[in-house]
Design goal:
The complex is a heterodimer of chains A (108) and B (411). Chain A is an alpha+beta fold and 108 residues long. Chain A is built from three helices and five strands, in the order ββαβααββ. Chain A has a single domain, classed as Beta-grasp domain (Ubiquitin-like (UB roll)). In chain A, strands 2-1-5-3-4 form a five-stranded mixed beta sheet. Chain A starts with a strand and ends in a 5-residue tail after the last strand. In chain B, α10 packs across α12 and α11 packs antiparallel against α12. Chain B has a single domain, classed as Cytochrome p450. In chain B, the strands form four sheets. In chain B, strands 1-2-8-5-3 form a five-stranded mixed beta sheet, sandwiched between helices. Chain B contains 17 helices and twelve strands. The chains are: A alpha+beta (108), B alpha+beta (411).
Chain lengths: 108, 411
């Protein structure tokens, strides 16, 4: 499979489009490409929420649902929205090619 | 990267620095924190002439280096030594993306908090079993009698190692991390420990290959990944090496360090005694203020400028995590142990892509250890005169930490 193209949108509207290999997480896609606002403090074990993002509803519907652990973590966040997810729990795949990802910017 | 630096102009005068930081010197290990403070204030970019490495100590600088995996790379090991221990095989701490990512993804799921949570009963039962013989004695060496055994027992169980072999494995891991006073070079004992540990796992794997039954434990899972072509054999052994060391050493030291911190911060300890639900927060604050992993090294992949000084490509850089954790520029009153601090951004487990894979397990083991300790001893006194420190450039903690207490049964 070819590289997946993802556009990250900062809270102030600034956009950055990056490419990532399939299988890498959205948190890693951001870190590999120097996208601000994604800290990835825990290294991807679903325990810090510093890769908090929001997806478009139609994209969200197409990917695997959040596990209980991820859902619990999201509920604890004051700034979570209906389409919130943790970037470290979503693998880049063809489904996400061209997706536009909003960065919430949750800090630890 | 160095925006918080008050130093301007021609840049930092590396040549004129007092040589205040030598992580191999035993005398530093008793209390390194005043030295770290001086580094942060006076030498935010420090150069150690004798061992030829740089050191960074402010929170923002440590965090930036940990996140900047393209320039601060891991592939030349996360130690300051130029030589790695002969015989050590590749493991994720010594790899960079994309190899690091490929390997880490294979086991990341097993170490997520929700997948670690079902182990709670096993950890608690083991903690009780280890503490029970001391419950009425009024004294315990919390390292030798408890903390050195609990994490190893758990990780051995996860790997499928026989209970009777646990002490042997722990001995080898101690050999691997041992350094003599002031000596940075690896020694014969490090090499022997490495050979013994890897040899043990090789025999274990061969025995399972013979029967064709790999099992469901971590060894079995890694063997299956090898069979599926996701890992090569060296990577399987490298993973087992990392899990054994990582699952043992630092969690042991964490338990010792919170035993000391809570004894020292008596008011905060009283709160945990009164409200057991604060145990997790007490463990978290210990990870910040006195985390076992003091420092990890990176190597610069290209020239990099900090504080007006160019760190040449190929330099070793010590990232002093617990100095970042006590940085006044980031935390208020950083030398004070405060259970209510709830700092989740501390560097106790590192940060970024190489952040500790076993963090959730370590947090749980630490919390349960504290809860169970409180069950047999409502409070304790540390017998400092009889305590002994481990001497390592990287890990801070005790090898012996005697506690005396009035047994709960008599109080």
């Amino acid at each position: 499979m070819s590289q997946i193209e993802i556009t990250f949108i900062q809270p102030d509207g600034e956009e950055k489009t990056v490419t990532v290999e399939p299988g890498f997480t959205l948190m890693e896609a951001a870190l590999f490409n120097g996208v601000d606002g994604i800290q990835g403090l825990c290294g991807g074990v679903c325990s810090c929420a510093t890769c908090h993002i929001a997806l478009d509803a139609d994209v969200l519907a197409k990917i695997a649902e959040a596990t209980d652990g991820e859902a619990e973590m999201l509920e604890l966040l004051d700034d979570h929205v209906a389409t919130s997810r943790l970037g470290c729990q979503i693998s880049a795949s063809e489904t996400l090619n061209g997706a536009r990802i909003r960065i919430i910017g949750t800090l630890a | 990267m160095s925006s918080s630096a008050p130093l301007t102009g021609a840049g930092i005068n590396i040549a004129g620095q007092d040589q205040i930081y030598d992580p191999y010197e035993y005398k530093l290990h008793d209390n390194p924190y005043p030295v770290y403070k001086r580094l942060r204030d006076d030498y935010p970019l420090f150069y150690n002439k004798r061992h030829d490495f740089y050191a960074i100590s402010r929170y923002d600088d440590c965090m930036a280096a940990l996140r900047n995996f393209r320039i601060f790379v891991n592939k030349y090991s996360t130690t300051l030594e130029k030589e790695i221990i002969p015989g050590v095989l590749p493991f994720i701490l010594m790899l960079d993306p994309p190899d690091h990512t490929r390997l880490r993804h294979l086991l990341v799921n097993q170490f997520r908090p929700q997948n670690v949570a079902p182990l709670e009963d096993i950890v608690r039962k083991m903690a009780r079993k280890l503490l029970a013989p001391h419950a009425h004695a009024g004294k315990i060496d919390i390292i030798q009698d408890f903390a050195a055994k609990l994490p190893m027992a758990i990780i051995c169980q996860l790997m499928g190692v026989r209970e009777e072999d646990e002490d042997m494995l722990r001995g080898w891991t101690d050999d691997i991390v041992h350094r003599d006073d002031g000596v940075s070079e690896t020694t014969e004992i490090n090499e022997t420990g490495t050979r013994n540990l890897l040899g043990y796992f090789e025999l274990m794997i061969q025995a399972r290959l013979k029967t064709g039954e790999f099992g469901e434990d971590l060894v079995g899972q890694l063997m299956t990944f090898e069979k599926e072509g996701k890992l090569n054999h060296a990577e399987v052994l490298g993973y087992l090496f990392l899990i054994t060391i990582g699952g043992n050493e630092t969690t042991t030291k964490l338990i010792g360090n919170f035993s000391w911190q809570l004894w020292h911060a008596k008011d905060e300890c009283a709160r945990v005694i009164a409200d057991r639900s604060l145990a997790a927060a007490a463990v978290e604050e210990t990870l910040r203020i006195d985390g076992p992993t003091q420092m990890q090294a990176r190597t610069t992949s290209e020239d990099f400028e900090m504080y007006g000084h160019v760190i040449p490509a190929g330099s070793k850089v010590a990232v002093i995590l617990t100095s970042g954790n006590r940085d006044e520029r980031h935390y208020t009153d950083p030398d004070r142990f405060m259970i209510d601090r709830h700092s989740r951004d501390h560097l106790g487990f590192g940060a970024g892509l190489h952040s500790c894979l076993g963090a959730a397990l370590a947090r749980m083991e630490g919390r349960i250890a504290l809860e169970e300790m409180l069950d047999i001893m409502p409070h304790w006194e540390v017998v400092e005169a009889n305590s002994h420190r481990m001497h390592s450039a990287y890990v801070r903690g005790y090898t012996h930490l005697p506690l005396i207490f009035t047994p709960r049964s008599q109080s």
